[in-house]
Structures are given as structure tokens and as C-alpha cells.
Amino acid sequence: MSTRLYPLYQKGGPQLRIFLPNFWLKLIRPVHEQPPNVVQFACSMEMTKHDIQNYLEQIYNVKIAHVRTRIALGKTKRNLLKGYITKDDDVKLAYVTLPKGETFVFPECAPDQSQKAKDDHEKALNETKKGYQNFLDKNKYRPNMPGWFQV
Amino acid sequence: MSLIRIPRNITKKLPICHKFSTAVLNNEEYTTTPNYPPILDLSYEKVQERKKESNYEEIKAVKTIEEKQIKLNMPKYYGFKCYMFNDEKIPYGQLPLIQHITKTHLIVKDQLPDYYNQINVDTLVNDIKKDIEEVLVIEYNHYRRKHEVLNEDIDITAQDKLLTSSICRQINRSLINNLSNTYAHLKQLQIDLDQRIESFWFASGMDPPENIKRYRLGEKWREHTENEPTNRAMQYTGTSMISLRSKLPLLPIVPHSEAVNEDLKIPYFKYDPRVVGTITTHRHITNIPGFWPGDKYEYGLLSYHPRSYLIGRNYNDPLDNTESLHRQALLSCFGWLNAQANYLGFTTFNDITYPLVTQSAITNGQTWSFYVYQLNTILNHSKHVRENPKRNICWATPEMKLFEEIKDGKVVGFNDETLKMLIRYYANTPEERLGVNMKPYLNNEEKVCADYKDDDKRNWLEKEYKFLMANRPRYKEFYEVHHWEKIYKIDHQTRPNEARRRPFELNQKPSNRRLDHRQPAYIPRALRPDLPRNKGRYAKEYFP
Questions:
Q1: Which of B160, B195, B172, B93 is closest to B309 using CA atoms?
Q2: Predicted ipTM?
Q3: Which residue of A126, B278, B423, B455 could cross-link B121, Cys pair, CB 3.0 to 4.6 Å?
Q4: Quick one: which H or E segment has residue B175?
């Protein structure tokens, strides 16, 4: 992967032996459920179907049956203070079909964050409840006395 | 009777008092046991289901074929969103989807089904073989096609298709000539070349699209239906090189009761059809089995299909060619039979009451695959995807060679078995189905719109039907939401002061416009009968 300006070829100049295109593939979890032999990638805008097939076959040695691509429109967002609208970049998505019978399962690289967040929230809630109960217990034997009244 | 007599013109004006009046008792209204109306389930799903059922009953009650097709198209002025299938454009890995949407169990065997064993053709083979060999030699070696004479450069697939087509025509001619003395039904056939076949049905059982999931999640009471399958409109378009039709149907291969056999397994395809390369478009739904309603030869016997598309096909999968042939055969047989069933008065909502059978051959002249299809059901929408126990059956043979090669003007390695199968197709005699009402859902007197005596109605129906079947674009194109509107008006409401004029701002859905939501044709004053100026301006319409 590279982002570079290649020197303009002048007659007699040295020939460029290596061409490093801006090619990359990012494995993503599909939004619409796909059959087990379909893998979804986000890829660089310049890549064609043939590029994607070659990339996977030549570099990763993966057998490919078919590649479909589409360009997904970037989401628009509104600035809450100024009110103007911005748009994310478009993404080229590739749906790569493996030969029949092969399956791909999306790897679980990172532990599930949502469960941890839920647990933390539960814990904090319980603590608050306990604190409030303490406060109530403290004033249990002084009915009708305002909370701020201390002896 | 009142005590004083009051003139009638006064009593009429008096306020009527029912306070002391009693109703006349009708004892017939009462029964010894109370007779209550049925208690209906008033949940949203059940109410919708009953509404749909009553709509299906309405379609069933429509008199003629054309009106039924118009009635099917009634809900959508701008056409249904159809998932398109073509017989020769076959994306990779579509067979399970096709089996699911056509409810077809596939049986691959070296032989045709046992039903064909009773047809003995051994004595006929030798006579026909010579003719067929001659046909092959002439077609391959001695016949120059137009593009060869003109030296035109056409692609190899098209060349193969031309060759296949003319071989099939000659083989068909030769077989009919040779066999028509033995099998009289071959003298009463209609032969179509490159006929147009279009077929439509609703299929369910696949995951709903994301937008439907989103609106289901939007309402609390509907959340639990988030992943319920939705109906999708399936539209098949295709052609066959040659097809034979007769006045009588072929006999079923297995009895209709066999259709509910649990052993006939069908793969369940749960994904959106678009994940296997299906495209969608908006169009009127069409059912055309290669002829117009009213043709007496309405049962298909046999169709020939090309396999030239395999030449340019490469998916790095050795089994792909076989699967794509199966897929092509399943769809073309189901498509043709479904369209025929529609001409017999059945629709995707009203299931067929007896099985239909067709035979097909996919070939390039040398390699042949044979398929026999029995259509047992065309009901595959809504709940029927789970509840309808009937399945369709397709018997398939692997690829077989008719000959090895053509060398020095001679056919080498002619395979009698392949020819025998083809002869068995022709020898399979259509017969009348005794005691079966073939068109239970069509009217007895008026089965096609040509039967109507009223000139105006007949012409109107004919015009409207042909217009829908042509699928020509509307004069005024369907409205679209412009991209800037989507961004600045729908997604982010940045223009609150502008007048709301567009359908999405007025809570209207142009896609829900019905076929009859339109102005009828205007009749100029000079052509109107002698009526008041404001009467009779618009022509009468006959929507079913």
C-alpha cells in the first residue's frame, strides 16, 4: 500500500520497475446476512473486480469463484451547532464468493464490549441503590424529620 | 286503528312516536339453540390474513384469463418490484434459491423416470438414426450460415446458438416425420420457434429486506415480527428454441398424492435473493407461455433449450456447469408450466388442482441433458411456504453425448441411448384427464375476453391486457426523490420554510397508486351521444 506521486516519465529517464498501487482490502462484517461462502470486504476505490480477485488469489492464495462490487454512499451528518451538513466518504464494497462448500466465519478478534458496558452500568446502579438505602436507614427512627436536620 | 280519523296529509307531518309500538314477531328468526357468528381472531396479523384471503377469492371469481392477469396487476400502477430471473443469465450458486422459490425436488438419475419404461422405442431407433446422422452431417459440414457467407464477426456464443438452433429444428422435423405414423398425436401439434416465455409468482420464506425490518422495529407492537419472511415477486423471462404444444395434457409421472411425500427434500434458502446475483426492477407482472389466451393448443409437451452460455462461463468450479444446467431447466420448466397454469385460470394465489407435466432438453447438438418436470403446486407465498405440503418434482439426467465427432462426412460414435430418450419424449402421448375440470376457476361461457359480446368491453380489455403484457414504460415516468431532497429534506430537515408539495412531504406513496387511479379516456363532444354538456365526458372502464 502506498500513496505516492510517481515521477513523470521523461524520454531517456530510468524505467520505473516497481509500481505500488493504492490497493487494500478490509474484511468487514456484512450488514445484510450472506450465505456462508460469501465474504464482504471494503476496498480501495480504484480496485476493479479483477484486481480484487487477483489480490486474494495471488497474495493470500484464496480460491475465488466470483466477485461483485458496489459503491456504498457515505452517511451524512449535521453539525449540531452550526447546522451545516457533512458527508462521509463513499466506500467500495466487495462481495467475494468462495467456491461452493467452503465456509467463512467472521473471526471474533476483540471481546464483546457491549456486555462489559452493561455489567459496569449494572454495578454502578446497584451501588447507588445501596447508598440511597443507607440514607433511608439512617433516618429510620426519626419520622417526619427533614433530611437536612441534624443533631 | 285510531279512534278519530285524521286526514293522511296531516298525519304525515306529525312526529312519529314508537313508544308504545311493538315489533311484529317473526318466529322463524329464533332457533332452539342460539346460533352465534364465529368469533374471529382480531389480532393485526389475522385481520390482514383474512383481508388477503378475501382478495384471493376475488381473483378466483374473476371470469376470464385476461381479466385475472389485469386483476393481479391492479395493486401497482407503476409495477411490482420484481426479482428477475433469466434462463440464460445464470449467476454462480443459484440452484438452492431456485429450488426454494419453485418448491422443486431434484432427482438426478442416468435414466428418465420409470414412467418412460413402458414406452418401447427400440424398433424405431434404427430408422430414425440414419436421418439424424444425415441431419448432423449437413448441419456441421455442408450448411453455411449467414454470418459465414457475409464474413461477419459474431461472438462464439452466438455462433454456437445459431448452430444449435438449426440442428434442433432439423432433429425435431425428422423425428416428427418419422414418428407421426406410429404416434398420431404428433400430427396435431403446434410447433413454436423462439417462443417468448414469461412467468410470475410470489415466493416467501426468505429473510426480509433491511428497510422492512426497520419499519417493523419502529413500532412496539410489531417488533416481534422483525424477522418474519416477506413475499417477493419473482419474474422469469426466457425463450425456448423450439417448443411443442398440444390440445391435451401429458399424464402425470407420479400421482398427485405423491406430491406431499416428506422424502422429497427441498433446500431452504433463507437469504435475500440478491446475495446470489439476482437483480430487481419495477415492472408489470406477466404470464405468457408463448401464445395468447384463447389458443386451443394450451398444454406444453416438449421444449429445447440452448447451452451456449456455458462457453463463456468460468467460475473455477468443476461442478458449476452441471448445476447451472439444472438451474436453467428447473426455471424454464417451472416458468413455462406456471404460465400455462395461469392460462388455465390458476394464479399464484389459487393453487392448481391437478398436476401438469412438461419435458425439456438442453443441448448444443452434441451434448444433451434431459429433464422431466411435474408441477404439483404453484402456491409458495405468505404462510404457504411452511404450510403447503406439496412439492414439485424434476427428474434430470446427467449430460450425454449424441455422437463423439464428425469425421470425413461421417458421424462417429453415435449413442443410441441418447436418441432413445429423445424418441421417448415424442412417444409420450398426451391424454384427456377424465373426470377432471381443467379450468375450475374460469367462467363456463366466457373463458377469454374475446368471448364477451359487448364490443366496447372486449376491445378495452384486449387493449389493456396487451399494454400490461408489453411492459412498455409509462408516458410519464415514475417520480423519484432527488438526492438533494433526500439529504436536505428527508434525512436532515434544513428547509422548514418551504412549501410542502412533494409526495414524501405530504405523506403520500406514489408506489401504492393502483392501476385504476387514473383519468379514463376523454370523449370529444362531437363523438358523445346527445347528453347534457357535463355528462358522458369519459369513456367507460372495465377494471375487474
A1: B160
A2: 0.86
A3: B423
A4: helix B156-179
In a domain? residue B306: yes
The verdict on residue B501 lying in a domain is no
Closest by Cβ to A65, choosing from B270, B317, B487:
B317
* pLDDT for residue A126 is more than 60: yes
Instruction: Work out how many domains chain B is built from and give that number.
Output: 1
Cβ contact B313:B320 at 8 Å:
yes
Q: What is the mean pLDDT of residues B38-44?
A: 93
Task: Kindly indicate the confidence band of residue B451, based on its pLDDT and cuts at 50, 70 and 90.
Answer: very high
Domain of residue B239 covers 60-450
Cβ–Cβ gap B272/A85 under 8 Å: no
- For chain B, the straight-line distance linking the first and the last C-alpha, in angstroms and rounded, comes to 53
- Out of B275, B315, B488, the one facing A38 most closely (by C-beta) is B275
Residues of chain A contacting B320 with CB distance shorter than 8 Å: 65, 100
Cell digits of residue B120:
418401447
Residue B513 located in a structural domain: no
Q: Is residue B525 part of a domain?
A: no
C-alpha cell at B344: 388455465
Tens digit of each residue's pLDDT (9 = 90 or more) over B140-180: 999 989 999 999 999 999 999 999 999 999 999 999 999 99
Residue A138, pLDDT above cutoff 90: no
What is the chain A residue with the closest CA to B490?
A: A76
| Residues contacting residue A115 through CB under 8 Å, at least 6 positions apart | none
Q: Do B492 and A64 touch (CB under 8 A)?
A: no
Stronger pLDDT, A72 or A140, i.e. the higher one = A72
Work out the burial of residue A52: count CB atoms within 10 Å of its CB; fewer than 13 is exposed, 13-18 middle, 19 or more buried.
buried
CB contact (8 A) between residue A38 and residue B317:
no
Q: Measure CB to CB from residue A66 to each of B271, B315, B491 and give the nearest one.
A: B315
Query: Taking Cα atoms as reference points, which of B368, B305, B306, B325 lies closest to residue B160?
Result: B306
Work out the average pLDDT over B347-367: 97
- A99–B277 CB contact, under 8 Å: no
Contact (CB, 8 A) for B273 and B206: yes
With CA atoms as reference, the chain A residue closest to B210 would be: A32
Query: What integer best gives the mean pLDDT of chain B?
Result: 93
Q: What is the pLDDT of residues B105-116, one digit of tens each?
A: 999 999 999 999
Interface of A with B (CB under 8 A): 31-35, 37-38, 63-66, 68, 76, 78, 83, 85, 87, 95, 97, 99-100
Assess B93–A contact: CB distance below 8 Å, yes or no. Answer: yes
Contacts 24+ apart (CB under 8 A), B472-476: B474/B78
